[in-house]
């Protein structure tokens, strides 16, 4: 440390006055240690030691720091290396967690996209859409729903007196293709079970039975 005063001479008044004020404050705080627990003793020791160090520095007689023993230096180095290694592992874990969260989010988003179907898809029908809505299917009371070609045909097959109309941006001939597809689909095709009554058969099957009689 660069000497600012001659050893034994008084330091500048400002440095000494500051050191005295610090010492007085620490003594007022920690001069009476009655009732201190182990933590308070440690805090008092640290405060008083620092106050003494400031005073010695102001008098320019602060002792040179003792060299750290090699064993302690090695321990400090090992602790520092271990902390750095742990910090690297924690950072990698955070990156891995971020990738997992991102992948999980994408998977959930993909599932949500797959499960959002056209309005014509019945809630009990597990089949996916084959494209965007291209037709409107109306029942006998003119209540209807827009649907893709696949679900539009399945809904039309399940209605009595249903009608199908192409949406304005649908390809030409869409409505007739959906109508023809519905002829070969049994009503409510997502329901498993025997089909014994004519109303449970497709329109093509019903016509075939009538022609065979």
Structure description:
The chain is mainly α. Helices cover 54% and strands 6% of the residues. It has six helices and three strands; from the N terminus they run H-H-H-E-E-H-E-H-H. The protein has helices at 13-30, 38-58, 70-115, 149-157, 174-183, 203-212; strands at residues 135-138, 144-147, 163-166. Strands 2-1-3 form a three-stranded antiparallel β-sheet, with helices on one face. Strand 1 and strand 2 form a beta hairpin. Helix 1 (13-30) runs antiparallel to helix 2 (38-58) and helix 4 (149-157) packs across helix 5. The chain is rod-shaped and about 120 Å long. The mean pLDDT is 78.
Gist of the model:
This protein is mainly alpha-helical.
What is the element layout, followed by pairings?
Layout: H1 13-30, H2 38-58, H3 70-115, E1 135-138, E2 144-147, H4 149-157, E3 163-166, H5 174-183, H6 203-212
Antiparallel strand pairs: 1-2, 1-3
Helix pairs in contact: 1-2, 4-5
């Amino acid at each position: 440390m660069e000497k600012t005063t001659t050893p034994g001479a008084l330091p500048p008044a400002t440095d000494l006055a500051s050191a005295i004020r610090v010492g007085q404050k620490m003594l007022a705080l920690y001069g009476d240690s009655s009732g201190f627990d182990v933590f308070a003793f440690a805090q008092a020791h640290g405060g008083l030691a620092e106050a003494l160090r400031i005073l010695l520095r102001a008098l320019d007689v602060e002792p040179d720091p003792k060299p750290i023993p090699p064993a302690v230096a090695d321990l400090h180095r090992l602790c520092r290396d271990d902390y750095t290694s742990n910090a690297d592992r924690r950072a990698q874990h955070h990156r891995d967690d971020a990738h997992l969260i991102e992948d999980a989010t994408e998977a959930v988003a993909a599932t949500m996209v797959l499960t959002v179907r056209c309005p014509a898809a019945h809630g009990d029908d597990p089949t996916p859409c084959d494209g965007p809505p291209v037709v409107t299917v109306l029942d006998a009371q003119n209540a209807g729903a827009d649907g893709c070609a696949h679900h539009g045909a399945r809904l039309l097959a399940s209605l009595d007196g249903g009608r199908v109309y192409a949406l304005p941006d649908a390809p030409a001939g869409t409505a007739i293709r959906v109508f023809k597809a519905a002829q070969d689909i049994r009503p409510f095709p997502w329901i498993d079970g025997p089909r014994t009554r004519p109303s449970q058969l497709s329109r093509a099957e019903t016509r075939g039975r009538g022609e065979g009689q």
